[in-house]
Amino acid sequence: MLEAYLKDALVARLTAWADDEVVLAQRLSEWVGHAPILEEDIAIANLAQDELGHAKLWLELRQELDGSDPDRLVYFRDPLEFQNAILVELPKGDWAFTMVRQYLFDAYENLRLKEAAKSAYPPLAEAASCILKEERFHLKHSSLWVERLGQGTEESHRRTQEALETLFPYVHQLFQPLPGDEALVEAGVVPDLKALEAPYLEEVTAHLVRSGLRPPEGGYVPKSRREHTEYLWSLLAEMQSVARWDPEAKAW
Amino acid sequence: MVERYWEALKGVRDPEIPVLNIVEMGMVLGVEAEGEKVRVRFRPTFSGCPALRLIREEMEKALRGAGAKEVEVVETRVPWSTGAMAAEAKEKLRAYGIAPPLPLPMAEVAQEDPPCPRCGSGQVVLKNAFGATLCKMLYQCQACGEVFEAFKAV
Questions:
Q1: In chain A, what residues touch B41 (CB-CB under 8 Å)?
Q2: What is the 3-state composition of chain B as percent helix, strand, coil, each rounded to the nearest 5?
Q3: How many Cα atoms are found within 13 Å in the side-chain-facing hemisphere of B44?
Q4: Which of its termini does chain B have fewer beta carbons within 10 Å around, N or C?
Q5: B4 to each of A213, B64, B70, how far by Cα in Å?
Q6: 78-97 in B: which are within 8 Å (CB) of A?
Q7: Do B48 and A53 touch (CB under 8 A)?
Q8: CA torsion sign, A97 to A99 to A103 to A105?
């Protein structure tokens, strides 16, 4: 059982992770029917569905702690209540932008989940192990795409490098601690994200350079997960429209 | 009495792989009966599996059909693995045209590809790491030309 003083901190942490997954799933789903080739259309629908499944797992853990309803949280919260990182809410852009974002996010998830699978809080360790099994396929897929695009044609290289210039500074936000994280890390409930940042940067930089790309230095890093861009508003308006239109419906 | 409920659960199929039932897939972790009350513990295969709701309903229906008056289906987070799949289940998959999952060390560490379920050749090419459902990948056999699905080893 979780000690009472850790409960609120863990609720906040789980919400942040779940919101990353939900918002990214929505962005991925925008490609369904529009991906460059049929195989990728299928793949991206799979990715979106997996990320939603992961959000469900995190929100069910939260539900066990505070009784909140996962559907209400996803479909009826306002944009300012969402705790996702800016990386996942930026518009889908071109194929290079989507694949670079996916790679940067997948590499972070794999690293973080490997650590989270050792959590002292068994429900979290189990959820992380389940998710990790699926995430391995994501990382394999997106890392191959980054390589293919980076070393492909002049145009694919240019687009991929441009995507990286925009996206790379935002990855730092993924490693920022929330106010309650310190206590959670101390109790061994969640991994120390700050400690994962250096190995992460080393791993992705190596892969990006191998793919002929240059990760940019500097850039703006959001200060907290309460910060959002205007793009989150339209994303949620679309995602939540059906649920808000008919709140009494039993399933969407 | 419990055996009877296990038998009933063998009638519940995964709608996305209709040749397999949920017991041989290793999804059912335990069945407890107390009088006419039955409690089943099960684990989903993939977390975002859209068939989950239907499978739960089918489980409840099957158990009621076997005489249970009260049914409780508990979804656990115990990670599922293709290692839990019975040998007969893998054979059924192959006969159905889906390459069964390789043992994890072969698939993950050695990065081996599954042989073609039609001609058995090992000369296969991965076409897509994602398939028509979350649990499958798409391959093509270089020997016989067959395009086939393979169950992901997880």
A1: none
A2: 25, 30, 45
A3: 26
A4: N
A5: 61, 11, 15
A6: 78-81
A7: yes
A8: positive
The predicted pLDDT at position B132 comes to 84
Q: Answer for the pair B31, B9: CB distance below 8 angstroms, yes or no.
A: yes
In chain A, domain spans: 4-213+224-245
Q: Taking the model in full, what pTM does it have?
A: 0.91
Find how far residue B137's CA is from the centre of its chain.
14
Locus of tokens 């996206």: A167
Stated length of chain A: 252
* Residue B15: Cβ within 10 Å count: 13
3-state secondary structure of A245: helix
pLDDT in tens, B52-103: 889 999 999 999 999 999 999 999 988 899 999 999 999 999 999 999 999 9
- Region of poorest pLDDT, from A8-17, B3-12, B50-59, B135-144: B50-59
Kindly tell me if the per-residue pLDDT of A2 is higher than 90. no
Provide the pLDDT for residue B48: 84
Give the start-to-end residue ranges of the domains of chain B.
Answer: 2-80, 96-151
Q: Which residue in the set A43, A131, A133 is minimally distant from B129, CB to CB?
A: A43
Burial A128-160 (b: 16+ CB within 10 A, else e): bbbbbbbbbbbbebbbebbbebbebeeebbebb
CATH fold label, B2-80: GMP Synthetase; Chain A, domain 3 (3.30.300)
Give this complex's ipTM: 0.81
Does CATH place domain A4-213+224-245 in 1.20.1260.10?
yes
pLDDT attached to residue A251: 63
